[in-house]
Amino acid sequence: MAEVINMPRLSDTMEEGTVAKWLKKVGDKVEEGDILAEIETDKATMEFESFHEGTLLHIGIQEGDGAPVDSLLAIIGDEGEDISALLNGGGTESKESADAPEAKAEESPAEPASAPAEIPEGVEVITMPRLSDTMEEGTVASWLKKVGDEVEEGDILAEIETDKATMEFESFYSGKLLYVGIQEGEGAPVDSLLAIIGPEGTDVDAVLKAQAGGGSAASAPKEEAAPKEESKKEEAPKTEATTSQDGGRIFVSPLAKKIAEEKGIDLANVKGSGDNGRIVKRDVESYQPSQAAPAAEKPAESAASVAPISLPVGEESVEEVKNSSMRKAITKHLSASKFTAPHFYLTIEVDMDNAKASRAQINNLPDTKVSFNDMVLKACAMALKKHPQVNTTWTDDATIYKHHIHMGVAVAVDEGLVVPVIKFADHLSLTQLGTAVKDLAGRARTKKIKPDEMEGSTFTVSNLGMFGIQEFTSIINKPNSAILSVGAIVEKPVVKNGEIVVGNTMKVTLACDHRTVDGAVGAQFLQTLRAYLENPVTMLA
């Protein structure tokens, strides 16, 4: 069956996109994961990949043309498939009058194409946006509006967790929030039904049926989460439904239900604090059973009479934390790098005495603050200019030499790891590098960083020296060919001019992709890096 592909929302502020280039033409075979087109957004030009397989049957937006988000971009289906109903929308009636018997039989499949016309005027169906170029699904971290609230254009509807960051998602429409399709903590693929906004009194059931093309799936929920939970509850053991105090069904979130099952808690005894008495995670976690109940469940008294010894009393407990979209993306990205790129590692020890003295002098200047990490970034940028083989990307057909230097800086955040990118780092001074790093790292930790600010790195630096780590190795950040791991500066005895003196040293380890960087090339890069760090004045020229 043909799949309609709409203009995606590739950034949180994108309202329309322009097709910069089609990489497939009508009639071409398309595999899942193939790049269909390059789409220019309000922030960057991104590759847009297909999530469907088949033949490209129709292109709705030509190269150079722009269109609003959710406009018809393309149709993918079986070769020779009739897509006239999808193109004509409500044109099925004329077909029906032309040949009544066949049209009647095909009436049901044609409904999805005409469904949008059945959505009342002024009602807007909002789908899970694609907030980064690699995002395949999103998780609603929190709703900032609830069903029944008034929404103005520009209001923040929800915080959505992508594979890269948690971002605020704003509404492009005004009206009342009529329906929420994805609950807090739940994930869903891009383009899944997220919410419905429209005038008060709108028949939400009718909108859901129109959105789903009249399928039975649309008739399940009526208001927010309760119907969803109700249908799930009907599949639960009957004792849960019959042991509630009022004899009715128990409304419970999936996560709360799972925790209750793990802890052996009877949900009939738990009071829900959610909407309409719905039991949520906090209710189960804070539930304290009465003293009588545990006593009835303790079959250990006979054992105690046999062996009256004092044993520690406690309760085994575990907590299952759902993997975030960011954690899944980190796992996928680093696994792909580790298992495809043949890594090797080179470590040197750098004399940091001059660097410490130079930093102290620089920081004595007014309005100037430079860190050792800034020095490392500057030294790397300058060393990459002299060793372009390290500033490359491997492909099956060629090695791509990057003439620009975009420095990735690994930053730890609560959910995992992000890599903000300092563009054209070789053109920045030490103080400019420091300012850029502070700005990007700060916005990464507060979840205000933009997707395009974490893309395009050609080399990456990971520094754990501030945590006292003296030496470590990192996994290469694809598509880079190398990553530098920076340890702590350690004060220790060293030999200088034949005498043992107190010195300051720092170990750095370069992880290299052996397909693009040979051992000698990596060693030469580190020699140049050491020369800059041990003689910081050369970086000020």
Main pleated sheet: 6 strands, mixed
| Total tally of structural domains | 4
List the strand order in the largest sheet: 17-26-25-24-20-23
User: What's the shape?
Assistant: globular
The CATH class designation of the largest domain is Alpha Beta
CATH homologous superfamily name of the largest domain? Chloramphenicol acetyltransferase-like domain
The CATH topology annotation of the largest domain reads as Chloramphenicol Acetyltransferase
Write the SSE topology.
Layout lengths: L2 E4 L9 E7 L6 E2 L4 E6 L4 E5 L4 E6 L6 E3 L3 E6 L6 H5 L3 H7 L1 H19 L5 E4 L9 E7 L6 E2 L4 E6 L4 E5 L4 E6 L6 E3 L3 E6 L5 H8 L14 H9 L3 H5 L11 H10 L17 H5 L6 H5 L4 H6 L18 H16 L2 E9 L1 H11 L8 H15 L5 E3 L4 E3 L5 E3 L1 E3 L2 E3 L2 E2 L7 H16 L13 E5 L18 E15 L2 E15 L5 H16 L7
Helix pairs in contact: 2-3, 3-4, 13-14, 13-15
What can you tell me about this protein's structure?
28% of the residues lie in helices and 26% in strands. The protein starts with a strand and ends in a 7-residue tail after the last helix. 31% of the residues are buried. With 541 residues, the protein is α+β, with helices and mostly antiparallel strands. The protein is globular. It has a six-stranded mixed β-sheet. Strands 1-8-6-3 form a four-stranded antiparallel β-sheet, with no helix packed on it. The chain has a four-stranded antiparallel β-sheet with strand order 5-4-2-7, with no helix packed on it.
